[in-house]
Every structure is written in structure tokens, then in C-alpha cells.
Amino acid sequence: MEKAPVRPRSTPFAFFPALVEALKCISLALKDSLNAKVIFYSVAIWVGSFVFWGALFFWQWATIVALAQVASAFVALGIFLFFPHLLAVGSATQAAMAAAPVAAAAAGIGFTILSYAFIVVAFIFLILISVRILLEVFLMKYVQKRTLTRYPQLEQGIETSWLAGLQGAAGNTIKALLFVLICLFIPVVNGILILLIGCYYSAKSLVGDALEDLATIEEQKQLIRENRLGILLMGLLHFGLLLIPFIGLLAPAIIGSSMCHFCFRAKARGLAV
Questions:
Q1: Distance CA 201, CA 184 (A)
Q2: Where in the cell is the protein located (predicted)?
Q3: What is the 3-state secondary structure (H, E, C) of 150-195?
Q4: pLDDT tens-digit series, residues 107-151
């Protein structure tokens, strides 16, 4: 049985206890995931997502390439709008005219590389989204039951409205998309901001599944308000797991189990107060 951790005090240095707590939850989840059935489920989610999108991309390859070229054209247009001097061919000297075909060929190669880069990024993104959805739909309940055996002090059987849960999920999705759209207009750091927003809302959306039958909607909202920094750190650690060979295959189970540990420990702290 996991001991209820002491509720961390709110201080200017709250980042460090939040990071320790997040790492503790990841460590517990990693131990829980070293199970043949859990490993099978995690690998099956990855394989299923890869096969589905691989088959779809193969079947609609021409359409996907055309869409990638359109996206590349918009990017190139944006680059030339912000850096118009790149279009200048200089004075109409013989040297400039001789270099024009070389520049055109280089631009064509760059456009092709950008188009295929869009395809690769889209393929990876769709697989990650699919893995995330399959985790929440098929694996989360099983992981919650396994993790809950460590926390017998938590009372089960609390009824929650499925409609309220659906509204919360829709609200999280809309907020995340709006924040991402806003970040697109912020230069330089927009990529970092989008990563932080994606990680935060990805972890936050699992709180309801982790606390299903264990907390009311209001209790879930209160837990989120009190642990926003911890949820963000959990999301960032989840993203990091995907980059680690082999462990990344277990990521669906580790992500689900770690959020269960995080929520259960947070609820246990509330009960201990």
C-alpha cells in the first residue's frame, strides 16, 4: 500500500517538490507496467495505430502528397512575405541570369523536401493522437483497477455524470485548440508554448478517467486547480517517455498508470489533511 505523501506547501520553490512527485509517479507506473498483459496491450495499441495510418496513407498517397504540397506552398508564401528580398534576383547581369536556373532547381528541391517533411510529421502526429485516444478508451479502466490496489484507503462507488465528463473533455479540447491558435501568432517561442499547452491538456484530460468512481466532478476540478504545475510536469515527462527506445513502447500503460498514481496520491493527501 502506498503511503499518503505529505501535502507540499505552496512556496516560490514549488517546482521542485512537484517534479519529485511527478518522477515518483512515473517510477511507480514503470514498475506496474512490467506485466505481460500490460506490455501486450501497449504494443498492440502502437501496432494497431501504425498499421491503420500506414494503410490509409498508402491507399490515399496521391491525395496526401497533394495536400502536403498545398501546405508547403502556404509556408513558402509566408516566408517570401516576411523575407521579400529572397525573391530578388538582383540586377539583370549575365551572372545573375546564369544563376537563376540553379536557384530555381534549389527552390524546387527545397519545396519537395518540405512537402515530404509535412507528410512525415502528419503521420507521426496522427499515430500519437490515435495512441492517446486508444489509451483513454480501451486501456485506462484496466490500468486504473490495477493501480487502485495500492490505495485501499480510497473509497469507490462515487457516481459522476457522464454528460459532465463529456462537457469537460470538449471544453479541454476547445481551450487547447484556441491556445494553440493564439500561440501561432507569437514569434520565436510559439513552438515551445504549443508543446507546453499540448502536454498540459494531454495529462489533464486523463484526470477524469483516473478518478472515475472515486471523485465527483467538483473534486476533480479542485484537484486540477491545486496541482496545475504537477499536471504540466506529468505531461512533459509523458512526452519524454515517447522519445526513449523500448520504454516508448510501454508509454500508453505508463502514461495511464502514472496519472492514476498522481491523482490517487493527490486525493490521499486530501484525505490525510
A1: 17
A2: Membrane
A3: CCCCCCCCCCCCHHHHHHHHHHHHHHHHHHHHHHCCCCCCHHHHHH
A4: 567 778 888 888 998 899 899 889 988 998 889 999 999 999 899
The answer to whether the CB of 183 falls within 8 A of the CB of 194 is yes
Per the structure block, which three cell numbers stand in for 198? 499540448
Note whether 37 and 80 are within 8 A (CB): no
Query: Position of cell 491538456?
Result: 201
Q: What is the CA radius of gyration of the chain?
A: 24
CA 110 to chain centre: 29
Over residues 178-224, the pLDDT tens digits come to: 877 777 677 666 778 888 888 998 999 999 889 988 888 888 989 99
Per domain, the residue ranges of the chain are 19-272
Angle, alpha carbons 55-57-60 (nearest 5°): 105
pTM score of the predicted model: 0.78
